Amino acid sequence: MTVDSRNRGYESSENGASRGRRGAPRNHQHTGDRRGSRDWEERGSRSGGGRDYRDRDRDRRGERRGGDKPARPRNDRNQRDSFVGPQRHGYREERINRRVNEPAIPADVDPRELDPTVRQELRSLAKDNADMTAKHLIMAASLLDEDPQKALAHARAAKDRAGRVPVARETNGIAAYHAGEWKEAIAELRAARRMSGGPGLVAVLADAERGLGRPAKALEVASEIDGQDLEPETRAELAIVVAGAHLDLQQPDDAVLALEPETGKTDAPEVTRMRVMYAYGDVLEHVGRTEEAVEWFRRAAEMDTEEVLDASDRIAALTAEE
C-alpha cells in the first residue's frame, strides 16, 4: 500500500492515488490564521460533547483548572522525584539541548493569539514556559498546511515544554500525522487520550494505522469506540476511515456498508457531509455501481462551492466511459 503523507482517509492507495480523508483536493488554500484555535486540527471527540471535530470537548479528567498546580511539598526531594518519575542518565541535558535547538519563532507571534480555551490548559505551567509553549502551538497551527515538517518541529518543542498538558501531546500527534510520521502520531495521540479520557482522536488514530499499512489494526481501533458516543463530525470521519481500511483489505462491499448509514444523516457539518458523499461515490465505483457513484459525486460537487474536491473530474471520467 502506497502511503500518502497527508490526510489519507477512505480510498485504497493501492493505485498510488490516495485522495485523502477530505476527498481529492484541487488545491488547498492556507488561511494564514495563527490563532491556534484548532481549526487546523482533525480532532475527535473525547466525551461526545457538543463541540465539532476541530474543537474537542476539553473535559480534561484529573486536570486542575484555573491554573492551580498540584499540591506537593516544596522541599521534599523524594516526593518531587516520584512525581516526575524516573529519568534516565542524560535526560536533563537532552531537554536543555532540545530547547537550545528549538525552531525559531517570529518576533510578532503573540501568545495571546492562542485560542483562550487552549491557553487555559497551559496555566499549570510557569508563565514564561506557558508563553513559549503557546507560541510553538501557534506556529504549528500556521505551518501545518504549507510546511508539515516545520509544524512538527514546533509541535515537538511544545510537547517538550508541556509534556503533561494534553493539548501539547495532541498537537504533536496531529502534526506528526500530517507529516506522515505515523508511529509518532499514534504514540502521542494515545498519550493524550490516556491523559484526557474519552475516545480521543479515534479517526486520526485509525488512519495512522492505515498509514503504517495496518488496515486490520485500523478497524480494531475503530471498533473500540461506540459510534453513538461520538459527535457527528467525528462519527462521519471515522466512517470514512473505516471504509478506506476495508478497501485496503479488498473488502469493497464492507466499505459501502461502513459509509451507507452516514449518507442519510444531516447532523454533521456541511463540509463533512460533502466528504461523505464523495467517499460514498468512490466506494460505489469500486463495487461497480457506476450510475449511483456519479450521482453521489454530483451531490458532492454541488456542495463543493469552493471546488476543493475533484468530484467534477470523477464525474467526467465515469460518464466518458459510458
TrEMBL record:
Disordered: annotated segments: 1-99
Stretches with biased composition (Basic and acidic residues): 1-11, 30-80, 90-99
InterPro entries reported for this sequence: TPR-like_helical_dom_sf, TPR_rpt
Compositional bias segments (type: Basic residues): 19-29
Keywords for the protein's UniProt record, in alphabetical order: TPR repeat
TPR repeats (start-end): 274-307
Listed SUPFAM superfamilies: TPR-like
Protein name: Uncharacterized protein
Lineage: Bacteria, Bacillati, Actinomycetota, Actinomycetes, Mycobacteriales
